Amino acid sequence: MIQTNHKEQHTLIALVEDKPGVLTRVASMFRRRGFNIASLAVGKSEQPGLSRMTFVVNGDDYTVSQVAKQLDKLIDVIEVADITNESIVTRELALIKVKTTQSTRGEIIQIVNLFRANIIDVGSESMVIEITGEEDKINALHNLLSPFGIIEMLRSGVVAMVRGQANGLANGHIHNQLIGNGH
Question: N or C, fewer C-beta in 10 Å, the chain?
């Protein structure tokens, strides 16, 4: 049997206690193991006192599994799941500030409209655009706006959720992909 260590992006979700220092402990665990987080998004969950973290990390299945198990051992972590192979919905928010002139403003507006993005601020020499969607959509808009001059860009990081009613980290369980320690 041939074992492959093929690296790919993995999406992990962790349900954690919503209190000071939790993000630091989680980030420190990744740092100690020399593991890079490609994307991290954190926010309140549907459960009072708990937050949900979405991580996108690069690595082979074994390494990601080991990191998830170490993450799950942290005291403030309620549960962790690798949802990479589940049917998931992912989104990211980006704000892009682009240079504008009177002659380029119309063309930029047309591009923004094609992507169903929103113009949320207009200045005399710039425009701030808000776009929500999958990573490829945001990258495509960025690429089309680059020739005009990107002044600044901020991306929220990926948030992800398992599709369907019974899947996902909710009410203390995950449908079949839990890497749990019995919390």
Answer: N
